Amino acid sequence: MAEVFDHHLGMKLLPCRSRPKQSGYTAHIPFSAEETGDAVATVWIQRATLKKVSQILLFESDPDEETLEDLTAELANFIVGHAKMLASDRNLPCQMKTPEFVGIMPLQKSGKTLLYKAENRCVALQIKGDHA
């Protein structure tokens, strides 16, 4: 996730020290790997950071709600796709399914969570599955 934000979006991720209480845009993307089995990656991002991503990728400073929802799913696809590429480089094949926007909600307490902040707002990646 850090590589995607840093190298492709130009946004430096730093550790987020406290779990955010606000709601964020959430997308799931199922994936599987031979060594770890089936899992689901969840990307959770606060609206202000998502709007910044929209400015960078879509050149839209005030995207509508549908665009933010689609962008959340595409961001999940981008992050997990990047991880898939890194795994493939290490001869660890995996498969991804289609990402799905699942709503605006508080960050759930489940699976393994990587919690960062970008633009002074939290961004999270959670992995839930057989070995998460």
List keywords for this structure.
Chemotaxis protein chec; seven-stranded antiparallel β-sheet; 36% strand; 3 helices; alpha+beta; 132 residues
Could you tell me the CATH topology label. Answer: Chemotaxis protein chec
CATH architecture: 3-Layer(aba) Sandwich
Major sheet attributes? 7 strands, antiparallel
Per CATH, the superfamily is CheC-like
Radius of gyration: 14 Å
First-residue to last-residue Cα separation: 16 Å
Low-confidence stretches: none
Summed up, the domain count is 1
Percentage of residues assigned to helices: 25-40%
Q: Name the beta content range.
A: 35-45%
How many alpha or pi helices?
Answer: 3
Structural class: alpha+beta
Short description:
The protein is of the alpha+beta class.
Please specify the SSE layout and strand pairing:
Layout: H1 2-9, E1 14-15, E2 23-33, E3 37-45, H2 47-58, H3 65-89, E4 94-96, E5 100-106, E6 112-118, E7 121-129
Antiparallel strand pairs: 1-6, 2-3, 2-4, 2-5, 3-7, 6-7
Helix pairs in contact: 2-3
Structural summary, described in words:
This protein has 132 residues and is α+β, with helices and mostly antiparallel strands. It has one domain: CheC-like (Chemotaxis protein chec), CATH 3.40.1550. The chain is built from 3 helices and 7 strands. Strands 1, 2, 3, 4, 5, 6 and 7 form a 7-stranded antiparallel sheet that branches. The radius of gyration is 14 Å and the shape is globular. The mean pLDDT is 89.
